[in-house]
Specification:
This protein has 206 residues and is α+β, with helices and mostly antiparallel strands. It has one domain. It has helices spanning 22-25, 54-63, 66-73, 77-84, 87-95, 97-105, 114-121, 146-151, 160-167, and strands spanning 4-8, 11-14, 135-137, 142-144, 158-159, 179-181, 185-186, 193-194, 199-201. Strands 5-9-6 form a three-stranded antiparallel beta sheet. A two-stranded antiparallel sheet has the order 1-2. A two-stranded antiparallel sheet has the order 3-4. The longest helix is centred in the N-terminal third of the chain and has 10 residues, at 54-63. The radius of gyration is 18 Å and the shape is globular. It binds zinc ion (ZN). It comes from Aspergillus violaceofuscus (strain CBS 115571). InterPro entries: F-box_dom. This is F-box domain-containing protein.
Length: 206
């Protein structure tokens, strides 16, 4: 997701690049979709979970995968308020909302937790080469640079057929591999529209 350049030890700028990543295809992913809720407007509570101190609830939610945390957030206003009070979640939604919305779109949000995403976003180096990494590889939540993302086989996901052919796996093994479901859009300078949702598997895990 998105090109970012490091311009000093602590300053990053978003590049105005059409690099055909997911947030170029759907710019709404970049929007901070946090609703401003009045705590007094929450009519329903958290049931049995209300017995837990807020700090424990935060630790549990941070350990959940993003998909589960999002489903919890949608239960009612109270759940949304509790989830929205987690500092890591607030920071991600304020500064990198596309990371969460993109992983939900790509159906990779079961592969990593809010804590893992927060830690990845708090680093600067590419997982593949150690240079500054301005992109996120959202199948397994790894930070990568433009070159690694475009050239290293680790970040080039494969179709099911290719996984079976290349690694000699049985089709039954595919079920256990991290994967994404591609999002329809135009991902190349030639503007060819990809309409079908393809399932692509993580090369490293295969
Ligand atoms: Zn790199």
């Amino acid at each position: 997701l998105s090109g970012i350049r490091l311009i000093s030890d602590s300053t990053y700028v978003f590049l105005n690049l059409a690099d055909n990543t997911l947030d170029d295809v759907d710019v709404s992913l970049r929007l901070d979709k946090q609703l401003k809720l009045d705590p007094r407007s929450a009519r329903y509570g958290l049931g049995a979970l209300k017995k837990l101190p807020l700090e424990i609830l935060h630790l549990i939610l941070l350990a959940l995968d993003i998909q589960s945390m999002t489903e919890f957030r949608r239960v009612n206003k109270k759940a949304r308020l509790v989830t929205g009070s987690i500092p890591q979640d607030r920071r991600i939604l304020a500064h990198a909302p596309a990371a969460i919305h993109g992983s939900l779109h790509l159906e990779t949000a079961r592969n990593f937790s809010c804590q893992a995403l927060s830690e990845t976003l708090s680093t600067a180096e590419c997982d593949g080469c150690g240079d500054f990494g301005g992109y996120l590889y959202l199948i397994t939540c790894r930070r990568v640079c433009f070159l690694s993302l475009g050239e290293k086989t680790d970040y080039l996901p494969l179709s099911g057929k290719d996984v079976i052919r290349k690694f000699g796996l049985d089709p039954i093994h595919l079920a256990r591999l991290p994967r994404l479901k591609s999002f329809p859009g135009r991902y190349s300078p030639r503007g060819i529209k990809c309409r079908r949702r393809e399932t692509l598997f993580d090369h490293c895990s295969a």
